[in-house]
Amino acid sequence: MLIDVNGKTAYVYTAGTTPAAGNSAIVFIHGAQNDHSVWTAQARALARQGHDVLAVDLPGHGRSAGPALATVEEMAAWLLALLDAAGIERAVLAGHSMGSLIALDATSRAPARVRGLALLGSTWPMPVSDALLETARTDEPAAIDMVNLWSHAGIAPAAPGSPQGVWVPGASRRLMQRLSQLNPAQLFHTDFVACNTYANGGTAASAVTCPTLFVQGRHDVMTPPRTARALVAAIPHAQVAAIDCGHALMTEQPDAVTAALSDFVRGLD
Amino acid sequence: MSGPRYPGFTTLALHTAAGAPVAPPAVATLEERIAALEGGVAGIATASGQAALHLAVATLASAGHHVVVARNLRGDAHALLAHGLERFGVTTTFVDPRDPDAWRAAIRPATRLLAGAALDDACAHVLDIPRVGAIAHEHDLPLLVDATLATPWCLASFDHGADLVFHGAGFLAGQACAGGGLLVDGGTFDWAGAHARTGRFAELCEPDPRADGRVFAEESTVGAFALCARHAGLRDFGATLGAHDAAVMLQGLETLGVRMARHGAGAHTVAEALAAHPAVAGVAYPALASHPDHAIAQRLLPRGCGAVVAFTLRGGHAAAVRFLDALKVFGRAADCGGARSQATADGAGTVRLVVGLEDADDLLDDLARALKLAQKGA
Question: Of A54, A72, A134, B136, whose CA is between 20 and 30 Å from B294?
Answer without folding.
Answer: B136
